[in-house]
Automatic annotation (TrEMBL):
<dbReference type="GO" id="GO:0000166">
    <property type="term" value="F:nucleotide binding"/>
</dbReference>
<feature type="domain" description="Gfo/Idh/MocA-like oxidoreductase C-terminal">
    <location>
        <begin position="146"/>
        <end position="420"/>
    </location>
</feature>
<feature type="domain" description="Gfo/Idh/MocA-like oxidoreductase N-terminal">
    <location>
        <begin position="12"/>
        <end position="134"/>
    </location>
</feature>
<dbReference type="InterPro" id="IPR000683">
    <property type="entry name" value="Gfo/Idh/MocA-like_OxRdtase_N"/>
</dbReference>
<dbReference type="InterPro" id="IPR051450">
    <property type="entry name" value="Gfo/Idh/MocA_Oxidoreductases"/>
</dbReference>
<protein>
    <submittedName>
        <fullName>Oxidoreductase</fullName>
    </submittedName>
</protein>
<dbReference type="InterPro" id="IPR004104">
    <property type="entry name" value="Gfo/Idh/MocA-like_OxRdtase_C"/>
</dbReference>
<dbReference type="Pfam" id="PF01408">
    <property type="entry name" value="GFO_IDH_MocA"/>
</dbReference>
<dbReference type="InterPro" id="IPR036291">
    <property type="entry name" value="NAD(P)-bd_dom_sf"/>
</dbReference>
<dbReference type="Pfam" id="PF02894">
    <property type="entry name" value="GFO_IDH_MocA_C"/>
</dbReference>
Length: 429
């Protein structure tokens, strides 16, 4: 795909929700003003909205506090990025599809399977270009791996093992203290986080899914595991120094674990003073054993594909924060991947070949921009979306409506399998 500019004017974009994801995707316009321009925003939180307006120099008449106000106006941009929280995707998706906006919708489509179908129907009816935030499909690593499989580097792929190492402090941030801690307010862990992985597994196996089973639960982040002497806020805790999940360790000091992106979730102006106030008064200073969380901290899913191929998936909080690990088992060899290196072992001559994805191009645009998140997936997802609109070519989209609905239905079936201790058939989208 060419990322070069042409004489066509930049794709104009309305951003709905200038939180973490809206801000990140919009950086594509700053890296490539000749390709994309953010011309409007809807964001209720004053400081986040004002920072975003200044960053993109948006005209006052195109600044809204609520997506409904933007949807009430005539169409003001070529495309909309819908980056509100999970349970707030349906309504804006239906409204902006009806107005004819090309659409990038964050994953998951919706926590409700019928709403997922409704969204897909609406964008198909509107005939707009539609992309979903399945960033893992777009990385150079994934594309290299797909190419090797297309070239039959390990023959016929028979089975797969895939690990999603969420990471102990990332789990504490997002799924114990943070926005996705409770499925009553957001979605199951499998849908919220691992929908990326189930979607990726389906993409790599390239075969329709037939049935799933699953086990897992919330084992560790529970009240009964709070250590003796612990306080309900890490700032008051006498045993915090011995706790891996200490908010002081994660967010404060010189060696804190979180990145700037995570810190901005706590406060838009990241200073020690503001962070301390956020830990004292907000949700991120809470003891991980005293939160209102209910989503799982570990889960396994087994998948059977058409023709009897299989995959097993493990999600766990109890790892370092690192890249996913995959093994593929084929009729003529094996493939091991870790997000950067791909190692092929051939059964024909026992040879080993290792590919380093970082060697593919001397200059990786994702790494040289501020959009290197998700292994460059954030950058390449935007590059494909904008290019698809410029060329009016939906084939640039690697996670369009049909594929996305199919992998979402796999997730809903797997979560049902876990809750009901059953094997669940998956009917194609
Ligand atoms: N693709 C990925 O890898 C990835 C990673 C993290 C999150 N996500 C998904 O992205 C979505 C957003 O997550 P986030 O971390 O950016 O959340 P966020 O809370 O940082 O951002 C959501 C924004 O929507 C705004 N909002 C609320 N009501 C609104 C309204 N009526 N009109 C306009 N804006 C409104 C909020 O004020 C907030 O700024 C979620 O669905 C999440 O699951 C995807």
């Amino acid at each position: 795909m060419s990322l070069t500019s042409s004489s066509v004017k930049p794709v104009s974009v309305l951003v709905v929700g200038a939180g973490a994801r809206g801000e990140i995707y919009s950086r594509y316009a700053l890296a490539h003003p000749e390709l994309m321009r953010v011309v409007a925003v809807a964001e209720p939180r004053d400081v986040y909205r004002e920072q975003f307006v200044a960053q993109h120099d948006i005209a006052p008449e195109s600044v809204f506090k609520d997506w409904k106000d933007a949807a009430a106006e005539e169409k003001m941009a070529d495309a909309v990025l819908i980056c509100t929280q999970d349970s707030m995707h349906l309504e804006p998706a239906l409204a902006f599809a009806a107005l004819g906006y090309h659409m990038l919708l964050e994953k998951p489509l919706s926590p409700d399977s019928q709403e997922c179908r409704d969204i897909v129907q609406a964008v198909q009816r509107a005939g707009v270009i539609f992309s979903v935030g399945h960033v893992l499909r777009y990385t150079r690593y994934t594309q290299k791996l797909k190419q090797l499989l297309r070239d039959k580097a390990i023959g016929d792929v028979v089975s797969m093992q895939h690990l999603e190492p969420v990471g102990y402090w990332h789990q504490a941030h997002s799924f114990v203290r943070g926005n996705w801690r409770n499925d009553q307010h957001s979605a199951s862990m499998l849908l919220q986080k691992s929908c990326h992985d189930i979607d990726w597994i389906r993409y790599i196996m390239d075969t329709p899914c037939e049935q799933v089973s699953s086990f897992g639960g919330l084992r560790h982040f529970r009240a009964e595991n709070q250590p003796a002497g612990a306080a309900d806020n890490c700032l008051d805790c006498g045993v915090e120094s011995q706790c891996p999940y200490s908010a002081k360790k994660i967010y404060l000091g010189d060696t804190h674990k979180s990145t700037q992106g995570f810190l901005r979730v706590l406060t838009p102006d990241v200073s020690q003073e503001n962070l301390l106030a956020a830990l004292r008064n907000g949700q991120y200073g809470r003891c991980v054993y005293r939160c209102d969380n209910n989503v799982v901290d570990h889960q396994v899913v087994n998948i059977q594909f058409a023709g009897g191929k299989t995959a097993s998936f493990t999600m766990t909080a109890f790892t370092r924060h690192e890249d996913r690990k995959t093994q593929l088992f084929g009729s003529h060899g094996t493939l091991e991947g870790d997000g950067r290196f791909i190692r092929i072992t051939s059964f024909i001559d026992d040879s080993e070949t290792v590919y380093d994805v970082d060697d593919i191009d001397s200059i990786d645009p994702a790494q040289s921009s501020t959009m290197s998140g998700h292994g460059g997936g954030d950058y390449y997802l935007m590059a494909h979306f904008i290019d698809a609109i410029r060329r009016n070519d939906a084939s640039q989209i690697l996670s369009g409506p049909r594929e996305t609905l199919e992998s979402h239905l796999m997730v809903f079936a797997a979560e049902r399998a876990r809750r009901e201790c059953a094997v669940i058939a998956v009917h194609s989208a």
